[in-house]
Amino acid sequence: MVVTQAIARRNFVAGLAAGATGLMLAPGRAMASLSPNERPVFATIGLRNQGWEITQKTCQFADFAALADVDSNVLEANLDRTAERQGKKPDGYKDYRRILDRKDIDAVMIATPDHWHTKIAVEAMLAGKDVYCEKPLTLTAAEGKLIEKVVEQTGCVFQVGTMQRTEFDARFIQAVALVKAGRIGDVKKVTCSIGGATASPKIPVAPVPEGLDWDFWLGPAAEVPYRALPEIRQGYGGNVPLFSNCHYAFRDWFEYSGGQLADWGAHHVDIANWALGAADTGPSKVTPISYEMPVEYRDGYPVANDQSNVPTKFELRVAMPEGVELIITSEGANGIMFEGTEGRFFVNRGKIVGKPVEDLADNPLPDGALEKVYGGPVSRNHSANLIESMRSREQPVSDVWSHNRAMEILHIGNIAMRLGREIEWDPTKREIVGDEQASTFLARESRDKYAIDM
C-alpha cells in the first residue's frame, strides 16, 4: 500500500470514530469529473462467468488496464480474451490489492463470490476508485451499512449489478411506472417468484484444482477444506464441478452467499421495492410460511459441513408499508406479479403482460413517465449508466442505498428460515426487534488476515 493511501485510510477510520460526516479523500482521477471524450481506465476483480460478461460489455466504453483472479487458469484465459476484445492485453494479478495501488485506474468492477464483495469494495473506494459490484452486494446487513458510509464519505460513484433497472427493453421501468401511475389502483400484493435450489449429495474433500489459491478464495470466510464431486456442470458456469463448495456452486453455501433468495431475490425484490416506493424504507415483519433446508440446522447453523446448506424451496411473507403483502417464493414462473384493487400484471425478462398493459394501447402512460421513474433520460445499458455517473459524479440508478433495502429483506428472510421463526424488523433503525439471537446474524466475523484494510 502506498503511504498516501495508508494515511487516507487512517484518517477515514478516525473520522468514523469521531462521527465525522464531511471527510473526503484527496481527489485522484476517479474523484474528478471525466471529460465527455475521455475513456476511463477500468480493472475487473473476479473473472469467471459474470466477471467476463461485465468486462466485455464495458469494453465499448472503457479501457481495461488490469484483471485479477485467484485462479491462474481463469486469469490467463480472460487476459487473452480481453486482449482480443480491446486490442491490448491488460496486466494480470492474483492479488487484487495490486490493482488498488495503481493510480492510473479509475474504477474497478467486482465479480468475486459474494463473501469478498464488501472487503474489496470498501478498500477500492478508500483507494479513490469508483466501483461496480455484482449483486447480491453483501453477505450481511451490517456490510451494507458500512458500504453506504464509505460511499458517503469518499464521494465515490458506486453501481450495483441490478441490471433489471436499465436493460431488458426497460420493461421493468415500465412496470414501476404503471404502479406509480395508479394503473392497478391501490397495491395489495406483490409476488416475486425466483426459483429454488437443488440439494447436494455429500461432497467429499478433494484435491484443490491446479492454479487455484484456495486460501485466498476463502478469504474472509472460515478455513475449511476444498470439496468437490467429479460431475461437471453443463451450460453457463460449465467446466467446473456441479457439486462443490467453490466455483459456481458457492451460492449454495451460507458461508459465501445467500442462496437463491439473495441471488434472484436481489433482482425482483429490488423492482418490487422501487414500485412500492419502499426503496428507502423496509418491512415490519418477515414470516417463513414454508421452507425446506437440505441439512439439519441447530441454533441457526447447519450441523453438516459436507453438503450445501441454503434453502431449496421456500415461501416468505413480508409485511411492507401501507399494508402491502410481499410474497417471495421458489414456486411459479420466474418474475413479478403486481396485484391491486383495479387489476394486476406480470413482468419478467421476457415479457410484461396483463390488462393494465393491454390498456396502454388506448390509454398510454403520460409523456415522461418512464423518465420520471428513472430520474432522467432512460439508459438501456448498465455500463453506459455507470460511465455517465462517473462523469456527472451523481450516483447511478442502481444505487447502494435502494439495493441494501432490498437486501435487508432477503437477509432477514434467510435468518428467519435458519432459525425457523418470524422476525420483526425496525425499518427506521434498521435492526431486528426483540430477538438477540437473530440479531447476531446481521454481521459476521472475518479471518484476521482477511479483515477489511482500513
From TrEMBL:
Any one GO molecular-function label of the UniProt entry: nucleotide binding
Domain of life, source organism: Bacteria
InterPro entries: Gfo/Idh/MocA-like_OxRdtase_N (IPR000683), Gfo/Idh/MocA_oxidrdct_glycsds (IPR050463), Gfo/Idh/MocA_OxRdtase_bact_C (IPR043906), NAD(P)-bd_dom_sf (IPR036291), TAT_signal (IPR006311)
Keyword annotations from UniProtKB, A to Z: Signal
Segments forming domain Gfo/Idh/MocA-like oxidoreductase N-terminal: 56-161
Signal sequence annotation: 1-32
Gene3D superfamilies linked to this entry: Dihydrodipicolinate Reductase, domain 2, NAD(P)-binding Rossmann-like Domain
Domain (Gfo/Idh/MocA-like oxidoreductase bacterial type C-terminal): residue spans on this chain: 202-451
UniProt protein name: Gfo/Idh/MocA family oxidoreductase
Species name: Aeoliella straminimaris
